[in-house]
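2024-03-11 09:14:02 DEBUG pipeline.ingest accepted 1 chain
2024-03-11 09:14:02 DEBUG pipeline.ingest length=79
2024-03-11 09:14:03 DEBUG pipeline.predict start
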Amino acid sequence: MAAKAFVLIETAVGKNKEVVSLLGKLEGVNSVDTVTGPYDIIAVVEGESLNEIGDLITGKIHPIPGINRTVTCLAIRAA
């Protein structure tokens, strides 16, 4: 069973477009949306396991320049 998560991302001022562009190029990132509210971007990621999602977030998403903070919400049941 595949694992899915919503990654809420806060970016540095003026870095939103760059971050969206880089996120869209990553394997495992299914969608990237710019949003209003306390976060700037919501990305939907999927992987074969929770470990794969964790590796994607810590190894490929966190190092993107312009990302200040992330909050990961794991999906526990698909609709």
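2024-03-11 09:14:41 DEBUG pipeline.report Strands lie at 3-11, 29-34, 41-47, 67-74.
2024-03-11 09:14:41 DEBUG pipeline.predict end
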